[in-house]
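ingest -> fold -> write
write: protein_1
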Amino acid sequence: MDKLKIGIPRALNYYHYKDLWINFFKALDCDIIISPPTNKAIIKDGLKYANDEMCLSLKIYLGHVSYLKDRCDYILIPRIDNYGLSDQTCTNFLSLFDIVNNIFNVKILNYNIDYCHGENEISAFINMGKVLHKKRWDSIKAYQFASVKANKECKKKVLNSFHKLKSDQTKVLLIGHSYNLHDAYLGQSIIYLLESLGIEVIMSDGFDPKMTNKLASSLSPSLYFKYSKEAIGTIDIVRNNIDGIIFLTAFPCGPDSLVNELVFRKITLPYLNLVIDDIDSLTGIETRIESFVDIIEQKKQLIN
């Protein structure tokens, strides 16, 4: 009997949960098909299905779903609402299932996360195993195995981030959602440019999210966007070891437009705000980054 093929779009929540998902499905003896890194063909395809009000990250996601639609038995599209009253997600994370279900004729494998109404992660994964005709105990063991693996990867990432903080290079904190920072089109080209200019890039998702979530209260005690808190909470950890901050946003992200403006008013470090839309060239952004690097390098020389 052929193994079930589970398609996973390499966009949005993939960058938060990939280690958990991949190891869970592997433990259940499923084949996994991950869409390729974002490219212009995927973006063009996503734009075809999207409407103008969707953020660029969501448009990209639809392109990844389109790539997978004829290549697997199920496409994983979770519905993630909240991890508690003070840990809400963007409405895109809640509406993904409905958006994809209305646009594409595909079999969707989904699970619900809504801690406010008693739908937690382990029960969600058990239900997902049930849809795949897996035994309850096998799903529980697969989830436990995947959680251990995901935690190990998180610890490795944290150790690497602290190692980078000790370097003598000029350091910039890149703040953004993981799905923008690690996307081949949105974030990676910016990271490569910074590194080519001799900058040590510290990623906002490179630290313990539970810790950064709590630290975000120093900037706003009433903020309730889970992933935004985890990103900006990093500032408290690194502020004495970095030379500047770059905020990376996909236009027109609602949470970022609110949260970033709040942070701008409360930090003293030099910062650059980059808002990326579906453009064909990053030349203008490259010029802004180069100018920003010149500024922080000159400031560093004056201090020394």
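write: protein_2
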Amino acid sequence: MSTPRIAVVTGGMGGLGTAICRALAHDGRKVVAVDLPTAAERTQAWLDSMQGLDVSVESADVSDFDSCQSLVAKIVQTHGALDILVNNAGITRDSTLRKMELAQWQALLDVNLSSAFHLCRHAIDGMLERGFGRIVNISSVSGQTGNFGQTNYAAAKAGLHGFSMSLARETAGKGVTVNSVSPGYIETPMTRAMPEAARERTRAMIPAGRLGQPEDIARTVAFLSADAADYITGANLPVNGGLFMSF
């Protein structure tokens, strides 16, 4: 029996992260969910929801370079490798640019964009040495279209794909693929908190006629991180129900 690939999912205990962790574990990966430190009771409840899948939890601040270095070192020491990295952690700090504070801009870029650099920087050498790696960066349709009140968020999400393409060029000949996924509107606590009238307007814009489910994103991540997906790199895969279409 072959040794399972080690997959790390940042923001792993959130709505999208949970679905991604579950999908990767169902594919036979040994999954490490990374999140900020939280109460032991919440962590245990989340692990219980995984229903015996091969999933564990590690704490780290992905906005901090040194914290990410310690995290990667611990995972490699504990599991022997870090094979799959899903940069999913993200926050929102919405505001029109005229009212946006520097702290709102910086905090969002630190978590949504710099975290990908922090983790990839520490993980990439091991992937290249082993001749295998899958990096999937969770971008957003907002990075493709822009969104009112989200100059910081759209900039970070667009930046993630530029980062992915450049790193893909650096690693393509060495068994490592780097891709991004751009979700549209997904059923999460944030979208469920929208007024129903706003949710209906959103649904009306989507050709598929529904909001996406976290599992729609999770299946896409599992596809891109598969061993057999070795000829797909530098791609951005939109998962938005047809909300935004382009070449």
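write: annotation protein_2
The domain at 6-233 is CATH 3.40.50.720 (Rossmann fold).
The first helix runs from residue 15 to 26.
pipeline exit 0
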